[in-house]
Design brief:
This protein is α/β, with parallel strands linked by helices. Helix content is about 40%, strand content about 15%. The strands form 2 sheets. A 7-stranded parallel β-sheet has the order 4-3-2-1-5-6-7, sandwiched between helices. A 5-stranded mixed β-sheet has the order 11-10-8-9-12, with helices on one face. Helix 12 runs antiparallel to helix 13 and helix 13 crosses helix 14. The longest helix is centred in the last third of the chain and has 25 residues. The model has no long low-confidence stretch (mean pLDDT about 95).
């Protein structure tokens, strides 16, 4: 019988964290939660999770904890809470934090010798070389696309891979040609997935797919020229690997994150009944089509900054985080998001950039990007 695995979950009150805890709750003989962390707020939910799973230590980004806790539970508060929780010796640290703020926790977990189940794609986008310097074998992808590639790659030898093909739902506007006047509610109405607001907006702009191309490059050490993306509205085929003999191996399952989460937590073993399978008693029609790069330039831009490197992916991501925040707070319109990102990259690209040596280098570059992005946001807002 497989021994219980000790699991740490970062971002436990978010979408990934909640689903991970559902997987663990359904499989108490396989997993034991030994640490949890969450962002600002949601203290009651975090306290409830600590109580339900008998977690000895939790962390919050807040400066103080306002909910009642069971006896014996330790709390770490402040900006360093998640990195500290990440360093607890564990079998798996699941990083479900949203945004580049999750990079510090990924590095902390790896520095402590832990294996990281990575749902925080920004860790690799902002600090790919820093993260992979610990060894790719210490990273297990949780994004459904990268989990699919990870699984499909098992179908052949490394030197037989010709191409990775990442699928994209197309987001809320895959069939809409006029993006002027898009509302927040429109952008958050994802047709197939239930995700947090930032990821859902990134899906609508296809920035999410750009981030995933950069993530795939670092996870699998595949050149950008061998990583493609296609629209697949049904979101059932999560990604594919094409081999040099013309064969393509795909991983398919209903659009549900529990499958890739369970695969990462249990790897190399599969978790029984992690998610519902495809119902083959019903007819299915799966569509694939190329991305319209004129309407959605985010993917081409991500590929370009990735190929240049030298911190530009971190700039791309930080500028997008600022622009999405501005859109969600109604400071700019939807079509301004990519203009802010592209113009921020252009403004900083001409400066003398060097390879990122440590977390402080990443933070400094991100701060520069956010400063430039904020100036552009103000201009976009005043002209709208």
């Amino acid at each position: 019988m497989q021994a219980k695995r000790d699991i740490v979950i970062l971002g436990s009150t978010g979408s990934i964290g909640l689903q991970a805890l559902e997987v663990i709750s359904a499989n108490p003989e396989l997993f034991r939660v030994i640490g949890l962390s969450a962002g600002f707020g949601n203290h009651k939910l975090l306290a409830d999770q600590a109580k339900k799973f008998h977690v000895p230590i939790i962390g919050t980004s807040s400066t103080e904890f306002s909910a009642e806790l069971p006896a014996g539970v330790s709390v770490i508060c402040g900006a360093k809470a998640s990195p500290e929780i990440a360093s607890i010796p564990a079998d798996i640290v699941l990083n479900g934090i949203t945004g580049s703020v999750g990079l510090a926790s990924t590095l902390s977990a790896l520095s402590a010798g832990n294996v990281v189940a990575l749902a925080n794609k920004e860790s690799l986008v902002a600090g790919g070389e820093l993260v992979t310097s610990f060894g790719r074998e210490r990273l297990i992808p949780v994004d459904s696309e990268h989990s699919a590639i990870f699984q499909a790659m098992l179908g052949g030898k490394r030197n037989e891979i010709k191409k990775l093909v990442i699928t994209a739902s197309g987001g809320a506007f895959r069939d809409r040609t006029d993006l002027a006047g898009v509302t927040i509610e429109d952008a958050l109405a994802h047709p197939t997935w239930s995700m947090g607001p930032v990821v859902t907006i990134n899906s609508a702009t296809l920035v999410n797919k750009g981030l995933e191309i950069i993530e795939a490059h670092y996870l699998f050490d595949i050149p950008y020229s061998q990583i493609d993306a296609v629209i697949h509205p049904q979101s059932v085929v999560h990604s594919m690997v094409e081999f040099f003999d013309g064969s393509t191996i795909a991983q398919a399952s209903p659009p549900n994150m529990k499958g890739p989460i369970a695969y990462a937590l249990g790897y190399p073993n599969r978790v029984e009944r992690a998610t519902s399978p495809i119902d083959w008693s019903k007819p299915h029609s799966w569509e694939f089509r190329p991305i319209d790069n004129q309407r959605f330039p985010a993917v081409d831009l991500a590929r370009r900054v990735g190929e240049i490197g030298r911190g530009l992916p971190a700039i791309y991501n930080a500028a997008n985080e600022s622009a999405v925040s501005a859109f969600l707070s109604k400071r700019i319109g939807f079509t301004s998001i990519l203009r802010v990102v592209s113009n921020t990259v252009e403004k900083i690209e001409g400066k003398s950039l060097s390879e990122l040596r440590d977390l402080s280098d990443v933070s400094a570059l991100e701060n520069d990007a956010r400063t430039v992005a904020e100036e552009l946001i103000k201009k976009e807002g005043s002209s709208s």
